[in-house]
């Protein structure tokens, strides 16, 4: 028998719950990024080997911030500076980031807390353009019976993932999209979390008709606090399970010099 406590816990049975969206051509995409495209470039039967074997393969074209993904610290600057007072223009010289590139994104095996703001308001989905406040997060933490702390991952559920199959509604160009306010971001940053995510395209509040003109929460989290942001999460299954504190598992792609990475986040809970 293993003497390792973590191995022993896994051996006892673990259920994995998906926290991300599937990737498919035509899925909702921020207007600031190129969309996801996938198509077969070789099909079974296009070439058949002498022994009867055949293979198919695809080509994938995508931006680094399309679908469920994580933002690297190179993604946002403020007044020409990245996190840690790094000069953004110098860091990106040559077409890749030599500082804060996506290859430095950490793999995460951390405690996570689901801050279900939609449940706090007793609605399936928050209103378009609603600004999630620090008071909302405090109430969600009370509901969860757990508050995020140093090194944790905090996931905000607005219920907006329910609209993912309807790109126009999900993007909310005219109606707005619910999300965290600067006040809420500061509340999270003060707790020393390592990453935070939400079930929307931009994580933060997008008022009606405003689009992605300004993204002050990204400044607070990425530039000022060095906290990674996850977007386009799907928190419906974990919310329906009733689990609000769990092990969070994430392995970003090591894209050298990039500003983000597609990811497949998972919640590991006792079977």
TrEMBL record:
This is Kynurenine formamidase.
């Amino acid at each position: 028998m293993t003497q390792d406590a973590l191995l022993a816990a896994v051996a006892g049975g673990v259920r994995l719950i998906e926290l991300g969206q599937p990737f498919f051509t035509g899925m909702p995409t921020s207007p600031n990024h190129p969309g996801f495209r996938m198509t077969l470039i070789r099909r079974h039967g296009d070439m058949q080997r002498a022994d009867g074997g055949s293979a198919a393969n695809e080509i994938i074209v995508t931006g680094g911030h399309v679908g469920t993904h994580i933002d690297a610290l190179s993604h946002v600057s403020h007044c020409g500076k990245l996190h840690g007072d790094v000069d953004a223009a110098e860091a990106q010289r040559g077409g890749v980031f030599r500082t804060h590139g996506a290859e430095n994104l950490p793999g995460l095996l951390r405690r996570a807390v689901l801050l279900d703001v939609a449940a706090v308001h007793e609605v399936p989905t928050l209103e378009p353009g609603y600004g999630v406040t620090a008071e909302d997060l405090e109430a969600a933490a009370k509901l969860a019976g757990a508050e995020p702390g140093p090194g944790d991952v905090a996931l905000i559920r607005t219920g907006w993932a329910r609209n993912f199959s309807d790109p126009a509604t999900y993007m909310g160009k005219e109606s707005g999209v619910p999300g965290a306010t600067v006040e809420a971001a500061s509340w999270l940053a003060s707790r020393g979390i390592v990453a935070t995510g939400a079930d929307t395209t931009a994580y933060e509040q997008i008022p009606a008709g405003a689009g992605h003109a300004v993204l002050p929460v990204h400044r607070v989290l990425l530039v000022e606090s060095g906290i990674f942001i996850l977007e386009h999460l799907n928190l419906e299954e974990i919310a329906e399970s009733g689990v609000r504190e769990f092990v969070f598992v994430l392995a970003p792609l090591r894209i050298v010099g990039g500003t983000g990475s597609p990811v497949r986040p998972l919640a590991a809970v006792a079977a």
